[in-house]
Known about the structure:
single chain; 191 residues; alpha/beta; 29% strand
Amino acid sequence: MQNRQCSNPSSITPHRAAQLALIAALLLIGSASITGCGYHVAGRAGNLPAQWTTIAVPAFKNDTTRYRIEQRFTAAVIRQFIQRTKYRIIQDPESADAVLHGEILSVETAPVIFDATTGQVTTSLVTVHTKVLLVDNQSQKTIYENDDMVFRDEYQISSDVQSFFEEQDPALERMARDFSAQLVSNVTEKF
Length: 191
């Protein structure tokens, strides 16, 4: 039978104390590196010049035949900047620190799901192509540019004539929100 001794803290050898100190130091360094790996709140990083306080977001240009789609996308971008950044959004490009130009290039609709009995389309996919450019007003330097941001969403088409409701408008609203969230992240984050 083996004789086991209870470990008494006062009986730790200097060699054992050095090992425990080394392990504690490694754990401390490891935990510091994990917690300090660069995570931060979205929209708060400094990808944009620190001296900026205002950004102008004029109405996006609409190259499509969709009525007022540019207003939805412009309003969604303005809301995202207000909610997620420290910048004041203004209308006048001349008095802003930067100007964000946007353009709706195209809106495409394609059938996705058909009713098996009638052959009518019940679900369609809408795809929106956009172009954005953020320019420093003082230097006229391009800070951010994306010539083809693409967003897709599905919408339902009701076959019931009495309760006909085409969900394209809500789908475009969702896409405007998704687009604006992605755009503000792209512009403000350093990735």
